[in-house]
Each structure stands twice: as structure tokens, then as C-alpha cells.
Amino acid sequence: MAFNHPNNQSNDEKNRSNQQRLYNPYQDLQIPVQKLYELPTQPEYLFQEESVRQRRSWGENLTYYTGCGYLAGATTGAAKGFVEGVRASEPGDTLKLRVNRVLNASGLNGRQWGNRAGVIGLMYAGIESGIVAVRDTDDVLNSVAAGLATGAIYKAASGPRAAAVAGAIGGLAVGLAVAMKQALKRYVPGGKVTKV
Questions:
Q1: 75 band by pLDDT with thresholds 50, 70 and 90
Q2: Which UniProt keywords apply (predicted)?
Q3: pTM, rounded to two decimals
Q4: I need a surface site. Which of 75, 140, 152, 192 has the fewest CB within 10 A?
């Protein structure tokens, strides 16, 4: 009994296999194949109430602002520590000692700045969520008031003058962030910016 190797197929068998059509599970739907993979760019919601809500929940806000604050603070502090470590090197230092000095300074400053910025983000998220719950409305005033309160509370132990200055800086910073977000929404085509 002789076995046919796949490479030894006759021309008739090859033509028959070329004429077979592959199964298309979408053939009964009367949809062109090109349309199958056009996915929507807007989020899809199961319930109508979810589509009306345009902001994160208070728990999501807390996590988001704390994490972003810590990351930004740690990155900035590590960069500052890197510069300090490079400047502190002395002419007779070995490479190992210089690297150690840079790593120590970066780690110390990154940790300190990250913790401060994380606490500020945590306070801001909590205050903003509280203001939204009390006012039962979501507008720019909530964000600016939360920035004012966060700055004032963060520097309250340094005295009333420092608290007032920090509150003003916090309110201005949040006001600028909200204005930039609105400008991006308006002037960047197709750009979806999440709530600040």
C-alpha cells in the first residue's frame, strides 16, 4: 500500500482544495467584512444613568489624585536629589562613591517630595468630594474651593499668613489646571480629557 506525500498531490486535488470556501460566521448578518471591526470611540454603558455621570466616584478620585501626586512628587524630588548628588561630589571621589551619593540624595528627596505631594492629592480629593456632596452640583467652583482649602489646611500649622498664601496658591493652581483642561477640550480635536 502506497502513501501519498502532501507534496505529491495531483493537480485535481489542488484545484479542489483551492475552490473550497472558508466558513464565515458573519455571512448571515449581511454586514460587510470591513464594518465588522469598526469599534466605537465613545465608551459604551450598560445603563443610561452611567452615561449621564461624567465624573469619577469619590474612591476613584482619592486613588487617582493621591497616586498622581505621589508620582509627580517622587519624580521631581528624585531629579532634585540627582542634581544635589552630582553637585556634592568631590574631586577625589571614586565612581562608586559618586553613584552612591547620587542614589542616596535621589532616594531621600524623592521619598520626601512624593509623600508631601501624595498627602496634598489625598486632601484635595477628599475635600472636593465633600464639596460636591454638599453642593450637589459639579462645576469649576468645587475644584477651586477644594484647592483653596487644601493649601490652607496643608500650611495651617505654619501660621495664618502661610496658610492664606498656600490657599491662594492652591486655588490658582487648580484654576489654571481647569482652564487648561477646558482649552484642551475646546481646541484639540477628538481629545477626551478626564475631569481634573
A1: very high
A2: Membrane, Transmembrane, Transmembrane helix
A3: 0.67
A4: 192
